[in-house]
Amino acid sequence: TGLTTLDYGFVNTASARSAITYIDGDEGILRYRGYPIEELAEQKTFLDVAHLLIYGELPSEDELATFDQRVRRHTLLHEDLRRFFDALPRDAHPMSALSSAVSALSTYYEHDHDPRDPEKVDKQTIRLLAKMPVIAAYAHKKSIGQSFLYPDNGLSFVENYLKLNFGIQAEEYIQNPVMVRALERLLILHADHEQNASTSTVRMVGSTDANLFASVSAGIHALSGPLHGGANEAVLTMLRGIRDSGESVERFVERVKRKEQGVKLMGFGHRVYKNYDPRAKLVKSSAEEVLAQLGVRDPLLDIAQELEQVALADDYFKERKLYPNVDFYTGVIYKAMGFPERMFTVLFAIGRLPGWIAHWREMMLDPQTKIGRPQQLYVGPTERHI
Ligand code: CMC
Q1: 359 carries an active-site annotation
Q2: CATH fold group of domain 21-225+351-365
Q3: Which phi and psi (to 5°) does residue 324 adopt?
Q4: Burial class for 137, CB neighbours closer than 10 Å (0-12, 13-18, 19+)
Q5: Consecutive H or E run containing 281
Q6: Do residues 79 and 208 touch, judged by C-beta distance below 8 A?
Q7: 310: buried, middle or exposed (CB in 10 Å: 19+, 13-18, 0-12)?
Q8: For residue 131, which of 154, 94, 169, 98 has the smallest C-alpha distance?
């Protein structure tokens, strides 16, 4: 039928032109709108980076103040949406709760769904940025059976999230610049990664002209899988498993190499990075800094470091160019900060939000965008009759 190439997992197929993020996987380079990730993570706030990704430029002081004010003004959730969480089971995974509530957001703002009206698109953008951390914190509060707090718009984006999530205990973090900065830096490192599975999902859903909330909600589900964002939770499960079983790191790595029941070294490997993941490097130094600052000694960090050493010295991993990715050390930091494991991927989602929004908007403005509609190779029966 004149069919094109078969490309499982889109390893070799570009589906868009994009001016947002540049990656050189062989050199370990990651840049947002041209700026190296290392500089942004060191010198900028998450809202600066969100502005950069979404609008193309770092904000001036005035622009940042306006942007920040707009976001603060939209943090409150409709009371009915707050009660929406009552309908979810207490043991709902926070990622499912997050995606469901973001999906439900679209029912409140239907009048503003118009991808061709820049003002409306921007209003939806600000709403989503402002409400996502609130929804994320409620997903957490729900899972531990605590009452929900209202946002405090006197606080910065990250401080507000900490407050909503940890309540009174957040004071300690907010007073501690190292903690706020560490979370800020982690969110920046997750903010975009060009056409990864969740962003491609956002684009695919958006290519049908579906609204921003619907598209991002689908992206959150795509992120939840352990091969993608869910890997940060899976890494902790793996480290705990090694610790609790008393198995040596060497034996575990042997089982990975034998592909025993599909066991993988979670937090290792990447489709694009074949040398090192520049985010992982920054996360590792952050993990050491945060644990030192909190005075925490976590044996799981020791296991992670040992696993990394053993794997990097092993031919299996060398031949396949498998290195630690961004998810390898983040869980150790989140754990030290007091986040439960089931919240790790939610933190990834808050970080990735500006990237999803930037891609959705870029796609909507690109005159060459077409509905996403991959081909297939049909391998079923030829015509037959009953
Ligand atoms: N442990 C053991 N073996 C691995 C791993 C791993 N983590 N990753 C890849 N391999 C092997 C794989 O089995 C294959 O071996 P062989 O050639 O013998 O069949 C070879 O390396 C090539 O792997 P692949 O599955 O073809 O690579 P991919 O580009 O399709 O997959 C990946 C990339 C990230 C899904 C994969 O490396 C993986 O499953 N890693 C573990 C999960 C993980 O940490 N995901 C987070 C990714 S980074 C952040 C994000 O996107 O969220």
Answers
A1: no
A2: Citrate Synthase; domain 1 (1.10.580)
A3: -65, 140
A4: buried
A5: helix 278-294
A6: no
A7: middle
A8: 98
Q: How far is 313 from 302, CA to CA, in rounded Å?
A: 17
Rg of the chain over Cα atoms, rounded to whole angstroms, equals 21
Question: Which of 48, 192, 277, 327 is labelled catalytic?
Answer: 327
Cα 311 from Cα 323, distance rounded (Å): 8
Average pLDDT score over residue span 100-113: 96
Ligand 1 atom 46, closest CA: 228
Domain ranges of the chain: 21-225+351-365, 231-337
Q: Is 327 annotated as catalytic?
A: yes
Nearest-CA residue for atom 45 of ligand 1: 227
**Of the options 1.10.230.10, 1.10.443.10, 1.20.1290.10, 1.10.10.10, the CATH number for the domain spanning 231-337:** 1.10.230.10
269 in ligand 1 pocket by Cβ < 6 Å? yes
Model pLDDT for residues 13-56, shown as the tens digit of each residue: 999 999 999 999 999 999 999 999 999 999 999 999 999 999 99
Summarize pLDDT for 258-290 with one digit per residue, the tens: 999 889 999 999 999 999 999 999 999 899 889
Q: How confident is the model at residue 3, as a pLDDT?
A: 65
- pLDDT band at residue 351 using 50, 70 and 90 as cut-offs: very high
**199 Cβ below 6 A of ligand 1:** no
